[in-house]
Write a structure and sequence with these properties.
Radius of gyration: 18 Å
Largest sheet: 10 strands, mixed
Number of helices: 5
Strand content: 35-45%
Shape: globular
Oligomer: single chain
């Protein structure tokens, strides 16, 4: 598997880590309160604070602090850090941002800052359908800015202090995995299993992880397992390769 990323390697890794952090956070809420098959929402989050530690082989690889609250409209605030590696390259990505839903409970604003060493990546959108996500960063060869257009809208709903997020294209999002029972075949769980990640909500463990990260998430399984899917999606959209500078996944 050969990947030509040049100076955009940190950008690619930070975006992957951002996706992983969201997967861990939203799947944790699902695993605690729901054991059935989901046909509508693809993500869940409990009202109030949702704090957890991300562990790899019982070692701290990160922590996430999320809050679902309402001030006129619902919003999710997320802060945290994830340490990961791809081969010899190791990075820690700090995450700080907000998702805001409008009066119709549609995702209307995305603003995230991802910091990797000296590199700062900004994700921003104020569009609903389609979602036009601006990705910008200051790279060694100059300022980088691209726009990723995604179908919308993303819909938020809440019942009994439990929020759920759904999208028309992600209903019943699953991957074929004959080694798992039918109710455990969701893509987010498969991703966590591939990475060997576990989430811990114990306050003491979270505090320990915030002091220092001793573990690291291996990103190779993502590229190995989902690289071909990313490549096929890139052929369709014509956007991902342009944004990440990926020339070849094989």
């Amino acid at each position: 598997m050969r990947i030509v990323l040049a100076e955009k390697l940190d950008l690619l890794l930070a975006l992957i880590i951002f996706i992983v952090s969201g997967t861990v956070l939203f799947y944790q809420a699902r695993s605690i309160q729901n054991s059935g098959v989901d046909t509508e929402p693809f993500a869940y989050i409990n009202a109030g604070d949702n704090n957890l530690a991300v562990l790899v082989e019982e070692r701290c690889a990160g922590y996430l602090e999320a809050k679902l609250d309402r001030v006129e409209v619902w919003y999710i605030r997320l802060k945290g850090a994830i340490q990961a590696h791809l081969g010899p390259r190791s990075i820690q990505t700090n995450i700080d941002g907000t998702l805001i839903f409008n009066q119709l409970n549609q995702l209307s604003r995305i603003k995230f800052d991802l910091t990797v060493d000296h590199l700062k990546i900004n994700l921003f959108s104020e569009s609903i359908n389609p979602i036009k996500l601006s990705i910008s960063a200051a790279l060694p060869e100059g300022d980088f800015k691209q726009e990723l257009t995604l179908p919308g809208p993303v819909i938020f709903s809440i019942k009994d202090d439990r929020g759920s997020i759904s999208h028309p294209l992600l209903r019943g999002m699953q991957v074929p995995n004959k080694n798992l029972p039918a109710d455990k075949q969701h893509l987010n769980q498969a991703l966590l299993q591939a990475l060997g990640l576990t989430a811990q909500t114990d306050p003491g463990v979270i505090a320990q992880c915030k002091v220092g990260l001793t573990g690291s998430v291996d990103l190779w399984p993502i590229l190995k397992t989902y690289g071909s899917k990313i490549k096929e999606a890139s052929k369709v959209t014509g956007q991902l390769n342009k944004i990440l500078g990926v020339q070849n996944y094989d």
